[in-house]
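Morning!

This is the sequence you dropped in the shared folder:
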Amino acid sequence: MTAASLVFVIDDDPSVRSSLKFLLSTVGLQAETFDSADSFLRKEPPDIPSCLVLDVRLPGLSGLDFQRELATRNICIPIVFLTGHGDIPMSVRAMKAGAVEFLTKPFRDQDLLDAVRVALDRDRARRKHDEQVADFRQRFDSLTSREQEVVSMVVAGMLNKQIAAELGTAESTVKVQRSRAMEKMQAASLAELIKMIEKVKAPLEKAS
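The structure's back. Tokens below.
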């Protein structure tokens, strides 16, 4: 697990950074430490499953502001918050914005390790999903513009006859285009094709 994942610890207290790094190492997790959110942002993180163990009170950007800044930059990294001065509104705000856990100091070592494992698992799942979507996107881009039109109409629930009428073409032509599109998308069934196209289009719709 050491080489396959990385935990970023951001805390302005050197003793806390050191103890957290040691704790994570006891279960085979590699950690990098930072004294501020700004110092983390100056670094280009490796492209591997990772998470943040983040103190709420930091010099410069606070932990919660940093969480918002990461979202603005479209940096998707799960966060485990630590605080010695937590309150309910603060924890609710953090969790609503997607934090994995909000631990109040002093916390049990096992609670932190459990939260970090959940965060790393979440990041692995996101990365796997993103790779899959990119693969489906590549397949979809390999379709001709007409095949893309046909597939989009199929996914919208239209029958071959309706698609043919809409496009002003023969139903037999639509069947051929639909068959070719399914072959290029490597979809074994209509249900599988629909799932693929929905995954391809979801990020585009979110962006628009």
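Headline: The chain has two domains: 6-130, 142-207.

More detail when I'm at my desk.
O.
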